[in-house]
Amino acid sequence: MIYSHNNMYKTFSCILFFLLTNIIVHADDDSIVFSEAEVLSEFTTRIPFKIIDHLIVVEAELLNKKGNFIIDTGSESLILNKVHFDFNELLGKKNNTTSGILSTIDNPLERKLKDFVIHSLSLSNVKSDVIDLSHIETAKKMNLLGIIGFNILKDYEVFIDLYLNQITLSKIDKLGNKIDEKVYLEKIIDSIDFILKNHSIILKGQVHNQSVKFALDSGAEYNQINKSVNKKVLKFFKPKKRLILSGASDHNIEVLAGKLHRVKLSETIYFGPMHTVLTNLRKMNEAFGTEVDGVLGYEFFQQKRTIINYKKEKLYFIDYPLGSY
Amino acid sequence: MKKIITYTTCLIIVLLTFTLNAQKKEVKGYTIQGDSVVFTFDIRDYKFFTDEYSSERLEFDDLNLKSVAVSGEFNLWSRDKWKMKQVDQFTYQLTKKISDFSDAFSWEFKFVINEKFWAEPTKNASNIAPAKDVKGENLYVYNLKMFSAYPDENGNACFKLRGFENAKKVILSGTFNRWSENQFMMHKTENGWEVTLHLRPGEYEYRFIIDGHWIEDPDNPSKRENEFDEYNSLISIEVPVTFHLNGYLNANKVILAGSFNDWSESDYIMTKVDNGWTFTTDLSGGKHHYKYIIDGNWIVDPDNKIQEYDGEGNINSVLMVK
């Protein structure tokens, strides 16, 4: 999911989730090229990214357009920005079936990319939604071609590395094993199981020994904790500031921002106090397709170099080389 | 191989600069020194202070100053976490590592006295932005804005534009300030316009805005097409990086080879020192692969555990410059 912030107090929460149905359009030459990527093999590629307001942004070329894509584990599908693509060739429009948390987004078009290619990595029949993302472009002052979500990422082991500022995609087989052997050299220091609920990575964690269910979302600018979570958990949320979250339209909600203390995912995986906002996640639960008590976003990835394996439903962690350079 | 543009030092005409300085608005509230951000609160820069709770506007003499803190987007506007230290009668400072700021562009901030009185910047600061309340309504005061890039006569990137003598206003805009259309005003020189910035290592895109009309840098051949079917000019900012190989004191010759010099096996000859071998070179921001060649034998850096495969299955050491 994408949360972005505007000027001083504004925090946008552009929460996008989609029901995928209806029109499927086939097009030739639908391939995405990451011009900056290092292609290690037919199955593995490393793509450098920039961080723009806590969002992971890669550069790519699709349908003769060059620009930015956000890597968002909270999005179910590939989303293309209507502003930049001429979809006259589309056969029709999908009805108003896409909805956001705070608003309904107008008539999303959907197209199916016949052949979605990451360099030589090819995916067939990838669904994509086509919607207007210009509000994110305005808020971030960036060009944005689209959002790369779960339905692209799920076929790869995905290493999101905020130390080397790159994402490594390595194709996996039916069992979740990487097809390539030579992918990473750094040692995996820890791992944890997650549950894949629809497209969402759900982690069972604890806040001061109270069970808390988190969704892991690389498109979340700030972590979030649900207002209705157990009071014993909320005791460890120390509010500091009020912020405005707003959705795809101009509907705003006011939230409290602060720090969440004592977050722990296992005996060995725990976090220092993390910037967190207190929100009403009831509607967001629809987006995640399941009930969650909180969302772990940018700061999670900043503290943990994380490998996601959707098939094995496992996260792996690589050591952070603090002070090595 | 990435294109690298070397920037020559600007020739600054002292008298002209002096005159311009006299008229120029200054960046207030922070400076970037090496890899640190130094926040500086000078009491004399602020005429009044707003009480967070009553919205009352007070003068400095009304306050019984106990503490000064930096509060901004980078610390979620905490009123008490980033306390400053008094350095003289009027000045408070706080130093932070640039690496503490994860984003590449800009942050808004203010100084807060006794955790509740906001120091209101005046229009004399060049780095101000209108402050808004939680509902997005204008508060009719300013925040200070901090950029990882800022104008500095001793900075590391000098931008020059020849000609355009009749232009009224020329602005430098780029990815380093999120394409701001008013922040980096260029100064008129004898034969054109210029401004010198301090930039972090990395690659940036930029354009000039001449009286509202955008152009690419006509003297910079390095450019890329943008979404408007025009071009953005490109620069790469480098920093000196020292490679050190411990030991191997019996070796005759040690070479540093990497992605930064096209894996040359002869260019970067390391110098023997007391405890090993060393070599310093300028590198752009981002990831670099490298290895050492000791008397003809290639090795990875034994003291660097960050390693990656290349496309052929070879193992390289990895250095990240941020």
Tell me what you see in this structure.
Chain A has 5 helices and 27 strands. By secondary structure, chain A is mainly beta. In chain A, strands 4, 5, 6, 7, 8, 9, 11, 12, 13, 14, 15, 16, 26 and 27 form a 14-stranded mixed sheet that branches. In chain A, strands 1, 2, 17, 18, 19, 20, 21, 22, 23, 24 and 25 form an 11-stranded mixed sheet that branches. The radius of gyration of chain A is 19 Å and the shape is globular. The two termini of chain A are 33 Å apart. With 322 residues, chain B is mainly beta. Helices cover 3% and strands 48% of the residues of chain B. The longest helix of chain B is centred in the first third of the chain and has 10 residues, at 14-23. Residues 1-24 of chain B have low confidence and may be disordered. At the A-B interface, β5, β6, β8, β21 and β22 of A face β10, β28 and β29 of B. Chain B: This is Glycogen-binding domain-containing protein. Chain B: InterPro entries: AMPK1_CBM, CRP1_MDG1_kinase, Ig-like_fold, Ig_E-set. Chain B: Belongs to the CRP1/MDG1 family.
Radius of gyration of chain A: 19 Å
- How many E strands of chain B? 29
Which fold name corresponds to the CATH topology of the largest domain in chain B?
A: Immunoglobulin-like
Shape of chain A: globular
Number of helices of chain A: 5
* Global structural class of chain B: mainly beta
Q: Tell me the number of structural domains of chain B.
A: 3
Mean pLDDT of chain B: 83
Query: Which sheet architecture does the biggest sheet of chain B show?
Result: 8 strands, antiparallel
Please identify, by name, the CATH architecture of the largest domain in chain B.
Sandwich
In terms of quaternary structure, what is this? heterodimer
Alpha plus pi helix count of chain B: 1
**Fraction of residues of chain B in helices?**
under 10%
Structural class of chain A: mainly beta
Q: Quickly name the level 1 CATH class of the largest domain in chain B.
A: Mainly Beta
For the sheet with most strands of chain A, the description reads: 14 strands, mixed
Runs of chain B in which pLDDT lies below 50 for 5 or more consecutive residues are 1-24
Name the average pLDDT of chain A.
75
